[in-house]
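Margin note: ligand = ribulose-1,5-diphosphate.
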Amino acid sequence: MVKIKCPIEVLQIANDIKTMKIRGAGRIARAAAKALKIAAEKYEGPDDVEVFIAYIDHAAKILLETRPTAVSLPNAIMYVITRLRRKRPINMAEAKALVAKLSNEFIKYSLTATEEIGIIGSRRILSGDVVLTHCNSTAALSVIIHAHKQGKDIKVYATETRPKFQGHITVRTLLSEGIDVTLIPDSAVRYIMKKVNKVIVGADTVAANGAVVNKIGTSNIALAAHEARVRVFVAAETYKFSPATVIGELVEIEERDPREIVDEKYLKENPNVTVRNPAFDITPPEYIDAIITEEGLIPPQAAYLILIEKFGWIIQDYFISKYPSRGEDEE
Ligand code: RUB
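Resulting structure:
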C-alpha cells in the first residue's frame, strides 16, 4: 500500500511530546488527538478511505512512540482510531470530518473531566487543610483550585520534582490563583508530612488492581503519608486507566536520558558510574485512599469496574485476539 508522509506539524507535536515541551498525561493525550485531526486535514493522498486509514494509523504509530508510560496517550489515539474503523466512512470527506469530530470530542471530554474531578475532589478538601502535591498535575490542581475558589482556606506544599522541576510550574499556577504555596525539595517530604493532612497527586496510568503510576517519587510520598496516617488522593480521568493491564500487561516505566541528572562532563569523567533516570514509579493500592475520577470518587480496588465500564469492548477485543473462540456466538 502507498505510504503517505506524515505532515511536519504532526512530527512537531510528536517531538514536543518526546522532549517534554508538551507534558503531563492529560495534555499529551489532547495533543495526540489534535495531531490526528491535523493529519486528517493535511492528507494529500489518493481518494481511497483504506489508504487514508493506513495513513492515520501511521501518524498514530509515530505519536505512540514518543513516551511509553502515560496510557492516556494510547487511549486518546484508540478513541479516534477504533471509532474511525467501526464507522467505516464511505468517502474521504466523511473520513476526514469523522477524525476531526472524534478528536474534538476527545479533547472536550478531557477538559470537562478535569473540571468535574475538581468539583468532586474539592468536596473532600476542608478549610484549614494542608495539602501536599507532587510534580505538576492539572487534575490534582483542579481539585485544589476548586476548593480555594469555594472560599476554603488551604495551604499547599509542592515538591520541586527533580530532575525536571515540574513543581515550579505547580507553584506558579497556585500563586496565580492566590493560593498559599511552599516549595520543598523532594527529599523533605517525610519531614514535612507532620504538617500535612492530605496528599493529592495525579496519575499517568491506573492499573486494573488500582496501582497508580505517576511521577517518580509519588510512591515515597504515599509511603510517608501512610506512616503518618495522612490520606492520599489521586486525581485521574478515566482515560488514564489501562485496559491492557486487565490482560496482565505491565506498565512500561520510562527511563530518560541520564543527562537530565548529570552533565556530559560528569559522564565522561566518571565512566564507571551508571546513572539511572526512571521518570515514574508505582504506588500500590494499599497506599491510596481514593481515586477521584469524573465518574466519581472510587476506592483504588474499583479500578477494574471503571475499566470494564469504559473499555469493556476493547478488553473483549484483546481476549478475542488471544482466544478466538471467545468471539463465537453462543447457541
Ligand atoms: C507528569 C506527571 C503528572 C501526571 C498527571 O509527568 O507525572 O502527575 O501526568 O498530570 P511528566 P495531569 O512531566 O513527566 O509528563 O493531571 O496533568 O494529566
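Residues 123-316 form a domain with the Rossmann fold fold (CATH 3.40.50.10470).
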